[in-house]
Amino acid sequence: MSIAGFPIGDGDRRIVTNMWTVILILLVLWAVLSIVGFVFEGLLWLAIIGIVLFVGTVIFGIIRQRARRPKA
Q1: Is the dihedral of CA 9, 64, 32, 53 positive or negative?
Q2: Cα–Cα distance between 45 and 37 in angstroms, integer?
Q3: Between the N and C ends of the chain, which has fewer C-beta atoms within 10 Å?
Q4: Helices 10-39 & 44-67, crossing angle to 10 degrees?
C-alpha cells in the first residue's frame, strides 16, 4: 500500500491514522472551549484561546498533510 506514492508499512499507516485522530480530537476540544467561552460572558478569554488553538490545529494538519506529498 502507498500514500501519495510512498510505500508504507502497517506501522506507518497506524501513525497517519493516529495523527488524524489526535487532530480531530483537538479540533472538537477547541470548538467546545470556544462555545463555552461565548456562552459565559466572563470566560470570553476562553473563547479567544479556543479559536486560536482551533485555527492553529487546522494549519498544523494542513502542513503535515502537504509534507507527506511527494515533491514534483
Answers
A1: positive
A2: 7
A3: C
A4: 160
Please say whether the beta carbons of 36 and 43 come within 8 A. Answer: yes
DSSP H helices, the chain, are: 10-39, 44-67
Grid look-up 495523527 returns: 19
Q: E strands of 1-72, at which residues?
A: 2-3, 6-7
Give 32-72 pLDDT, tens digit per residue: 888 888 888 778 888 888 889 999 998 988 888 888 776 66
pTM: 0.58
Alpha-carbon gap, residue 34 to 52, rounded angstroms: 9
Q: State whether residue 22 is helix, strand or coil.
A: helix
- Distance between CA atoms of residues 45 and 53, nearest Å: 12
